[in-house]
Amino acid sequence: VESVNIVSEEDLEKESERLKEKHPDSHRDTVKAIGRKLTKEWKKSKIVSPKPYNGPTVPAGGSLKNVVGSFDLGNTGLVLEVAESLAAPGAGFGLFLRKRDASVKNVILPAGQPLCGYPVQVSSKPSIEGGKTILFALNSLKSDVFFKGTLMSLEGALATAGEGSELASHAVARDPKGVPIGIGPLGDSEANCDPVDANRYLVPYSGIDFTGGGGGRPAGVAGLGDQANDLSVEASGPNGMLQVGGTRPGSAATERDYLTQAAKKNLLAFRYNLDLDSTSGVSPPRLVPLSPLLVVTQTVVVSNVEPMELGHAYGFPYWKQQLEDMRKWG
Question: pTM to 2 decimals?
């Protein structure tokens, strides 16, 4: 039995060559099989370190323009800021992340970690003050949601809430034993159904007061999420075509193009935040939406002292609607 010591890709190549030279009379297929085995065991055993986050940032020595909010993330040593976006001219404000200073150790943000709130008003009307309104709609029991502060599947949230639990504005399909097997929005308006079953819309706040002093927007990091831009969309191309990174100039982006770039460019994702209906006497238990959260989609290391912009995918339907509105209104 012969042992080898491999701690890097270079060691892997050296040991493979050494074994070939040491056993020149061995059958060539046997030597190749040993090489493949070494490679397989190395890939199984090596630890993959998370990559540093690398988002849009200001040039060396530069600074963000028009910083309207800066907030510490607890005792992590990280800071979230709202300032003029670097995504594209006219993109408005953006959301930025950095270490407080160089003395702070690098911070690992695991996938699924909530980073900030996405402040909304829950309403039965599709628009109150601003754009980016979201219809509260879930179509899978496997969807990730927060329930009472814990990330779990919608199926798990219904089970945790109690026997026969319901989801506001949705129909829960169950098997003969009462186990949920499907979910879908009711699609009803306030005008033709019980208000409990009416569509619920999540409407972001207008204004940029992050102190909690006016307009209803929550103070601090709970009120920042709607400032994040979708970094996968670079521009609206000629003739009203949607263009994203990776598409040829003058060619319209497909949904597949968009989803590919969204996964590469955007670190944040939207997750519904649910709680029990506090209305007195509700039976069976009913889950209702609160302001959602933005979570980290992949494990990254935050090592930057300079602010880097964070992206949040708005979804292909959102951008299609934006282009249709642009064509409609000129």
Answer: 0.77
